[in-house]
Amino acid sequence: MKKIWIINGPNLNFLGIREKGIYGNDTYESVCEYIKKQFKDEAVEIKIFQSNYEGKIIDILQSAYFEKIDGIVINPGAFTHYSYAIFDGIKSVQIPTVEVHLSDIHKREEFRKISVTSPACVAQIYGKGKGGYVKAIKLLLEK
Ligand code: DQA
Question: CATH number of the domain that 7 lies in?
Fold first, then answer.
C-alpha cells in the first residue's frame, strides 16, 4: 500500500471563507473529503495535514522521511514565494513531491509567479482547483 501525504500551508484552512472569487466556495474540510473519496477504492493511504507555520510544515516533511512516505503533495500557500526553508525541507527528505496551487499563480500578482519551492519538486500543478490535488496524487502513483 503506497502512502501519500498532502501538506497544506497557511490560510488554506480558510477555504470557503477566504477570497471566494479566487478559491471558490468549497470549505477546507469538503476539499479534503473530496480528495480522499477519489482514491477510496485504490491501494493508497492518504493523509492530509495543514499548518499556518513554516516550522511545522518542515516538521511534517521530516516525519514523512521517518515514516517512509512514498510521495508528497504540497501546497505551501504564500510560503511558495519565499520559503527557502521549505525548499530545503523538500530537498532534504528525497521523496517525490508535487507542488499544487488551486489558483493560476501565473495569472495573478507578479510575486505569485515566482515559486522558490517548485525547483525541489517533480512537478507544479496550478489553476485546476481541488482537481489539482487529484492530478498530483495520480502523477505520484505512476512513479
Ligand atoms: C495558493 C496560491 C498562493 O499564492 C497563495 O498565497 C495561497 C494559495 C493557491 O493554492 O492557489 O495561499 O497556494
Answer: 3.40.50.9100
Q: List the strands of the sheet with 71-75, edge to edge.
A: 44-50, 2-8, 71-75, 97-101, 123-126
What is the value of pTM for the model shown?
0.98
Number of structural domains, the chain? Answer: 1
Give residue-wise pLDDT tens across range 61-112.
999 999 999 999 999 999 999 999 999 999 999 999 999 999 999 999 999 9
Residue 22 to residues 19, 72, 127, Cα–Cα distance (Å): 6, 24, 10
The domain of 35 spans: 2-142
26: cell is 468549497
- What type of residue is 18? R
Nearest-atom number in ligand 1 for the CA of 132 is: 10
| Distance from residue 76's CA to the centre of ligand 1 (Å) | 7
Provide the angle, in degrees to the nearest 10, between the axes of the packed helices 54-66 and 84-93: 0
For a substitution probing ligand 1, which of 54, 101, 107 has the most ligand atoms within 8 Å of its CB? 101
- Confidence tier at 143 by pLDDT (50, 70, 90): confident
Average pLDDT in the 112-119 region? Answer: 98
